[in-house]
Amino acid sequence: MKRLAIIGLDGATFELIHPWVEQGRLPNFARLLEHGASSGLRSVPNMNTAPAWTTFMTGKNPGKHGIFWFAEEGNAAGKVRFVTAADRDGASLWRLLSDGDRRVCVMNVPLTYPVEAVNGVMVAGFDAPSTSSRNFTFPENLLADVERRCGPYHLHVPVIAHAEAGRRSRVAEDILKAEETRVSAAIDLLQSEPWDVFMYMIKATDMAAHYLWDYDSPEQHDLLPVYEYADAALGRFAEAAGEDCGMLVMSDHGFGWRQPAAEYLNDILAQLGYMGKAQSHSEGATWRAFRIAKRLGPRAKGAVKRLLPGAYSRFGYRVRFGGIDWSQTRAYCDNTRSCVWINLRGRNPKGLVEPGEYQGLIDELREVLLALTDPSTGERVVEAAWLPEEIYSGPHTSSAPDIQIDWNYDRPVKGLKYEGRLGSAESKESAKGTMNALTGAHRPTGILLMSGPQFGPPGSLEDAKLQDIAPTVLHIAGLPVPDDMDGRVLAEGLAEPYGSTPVERGAAKKGEVMSGPAYSDEEAAEIEDRLKALGYL
Predict the structure, then answer these.
(1) Over 369-405, what HEC string results?
(2) What is the pLDDT averaged over residues 299-304?
(3) Are 71 and 82 in contact (CB under 8 A)?
(4) Residue partners of 470: CB distance under 8 A and separation at least 6
(5) Exposure string (b/e) for 273-304, b if CB count within 10 Å is 16 or more?
(6) Which of 241, 246, 389, 488 is most open to solvent, judged by the fewest CB atoms within 10 Å of its CB?
(7) Is residue 309's pLDDT more than 60?
């Protein structure tokens, strides 16, 4: 097969790319737009990074592959369990290519930890605890060899302190320094390893936008250096891969300013009697120990979690779920994600709502949500309130939140208000936590650009979706597309003979993810801090 390089740009958006291309600031994006097919790329319904990249690499919607978030509710109220690639239902693109005797080189893609034993090499993404974690790379000694040639590899860099202090230039600077260590390693492997399909994901475009998106500035000057770096990286990858290699550049979702409406939602639910608020815990010695450990970092925090599990659970319960009294709670939000969950008996650890009461409660909550307004303008703030079966399909659909909210994006709200037959409530007190440093958030439409010998002339694709990438890559590779994939082959964007060649269908395949150890307490604390800092918890 002709070689294909896939470059992921986490959270990249044409809203920034197109104007900067017109200004001559992004020459490599300009060449891709001029010589290849391009389109917006529809993300998963909740626009979350974990299910989005999993949909990209399985060709399935989250209802089939089973990943909805980086963390899911654990077996006790107020607790979470962090998700890994081992939770994925179904074979990844890398497994299918490997089984088809195609060699892969995959780096820095989320939800690839623990890595698979592929036909080629793999380096896990930022959801791995550290570069020293077992099953961070395949083969196991891969990173040591790369670091000897390229220098230290930085998996993640914390920048929230710079963001909170207003040091915006330091945010971009530190993010790009860490990204460069990974890009250098990726180019090293691209040049030293044999491969048919190469993939690297640039994280900087997402991470910087979370902290640097400026609601008052349509130009987004603080993000221009990040996109200029990404543009230069595209040029470096293209040059290293050679002219005979196809390039597929895509993002898992788009980006824009952050709508903080979810931070007011629990207060509304409490005022309307759907949620009970717990009394604050006393500030005893264990609480002080945890607060000190939290400031000292993941290692100290993990030690407190191990030695004082009860205190840790209560602290996390209060922060994550806003101090919920589960004995008085029928419905709740977690102050971060745009969802409502029902506290259902038989499913939730402290379930209160009887199954026979479920649908009536859902109908009430949808009525409340669709009537919510911004108290400062009187404008409606909810575009849609979806049930799982309306936006997902497959055996894991019941694991989705009971209601998924699509907010209006006319302006960021500073409160929520409800007036209707079910009562009245108004909240102007935000449950921000660490969210006050985050100014940007995900949007439904990412980017897709395809250029090279496998792809057709310039033009727009037809309603491209994230789940279309895996079947398109398999078709280009001359391999069958499993019949349980939701995506389609983007034939209108392919050159001949790929565009007119009939799509071969094959049987569904189960995933064969390498078994990896559960996160240690210290590792779980590190992952929790990392995800919270990006607004994912």
Answers:
(1) HHHCECCCCCCECEEEEECHHHHCCCCCHHHCCCEEE
(2) 58
(3) yes
(4) 56, 57, 58, 59, 93, 96, 485, 487
(5) ebbbebeeeeeeebbebbeebbeeebebbbbb
(6) 389
(7) no
CA-to-CA distance for 510 and 455, rounded, in angstroms? 30
Q: Could you give the maximum distance between any two Cα atoms of the chain, in Å? A: 71
pLDDT per residue over 430-488, tens digit each?
766 545 688 999 999 999 999 999 999 887 788 999 999 999 999 999 999 999 999 99
Taking the chain, what is the end-to-end CA distance rounded to the nearest angstrom?
Answer: 42
Cα–Cα distance measured from residue 509 to residue 495, given in angstroms and rounded to the nearest whole number: 28
452 φψ region: left (φ > 0), alpha (ψ -120 to 50), beta (else): left
* Angular region, 244: left φ>0, alpha ψ -120 to 50, beta rest: alpha
Q: What is the pLDDT of residues 26-74, one digit of tens each?
A: 999 999 999 999 999 999 999 999 999 999 999 999 999 999 998 876 5
Tokens at 82, concatenated: 């962090």
Q: What is the predicted pLDDT for the residue at 282? A: 46
Phi, psi (deg, nearest 5) at residue 459: 165, 170
Closest alpha carbon to 405 in 532, 534, 259 = 259
What CA dihedral angle connects 390, 396, 399 and 400, to 10 degrees?
-30
Enter the tokens of residue 264.
């007011």
Helix (H) / strand (E) element for 171: namely helix 168-192
171 pLDDT more than 90? yes
DSSP 112-144: -PSPP--SEEEEE-TTSS-TTSTTSEESTTHHH
Tell me which residue of 207, 210, 203 sits closest to 181, measured CA to CA.
203
Which backbone phi and psi does 413 adopt, to 5 degrees?
-80, 160
Residue 482 φ then ψ, to 5°? -55, 140
Q: β-strands 80-82, 71-73: how paired?
A: antiparallel
* Structural domain spans, the chain: 4-258+440-533, 260-278+323-436
SS3 label, residue 420: strand
Structure tokens at 8: 């992921």
Count helices and strands in the chain by DSSP H and E runs: 18, 23
What's the whole-model pTM score?
0.91
| Model pLDDT for residues 339-395, shown as the tens digit of each residue | 999 999 999 988 999 999 999 999 999 999 999 999 999 999 999 999 999 999 999
Tens of pLDDT, residue by residue over 71-110, are: 876 555 556 778 899 999 999 999 999 999 999 999 999 9
DSSP 466-477: GGGHHHHHHHHT
**Average confidence (pLDDT) over 418-422:** 96
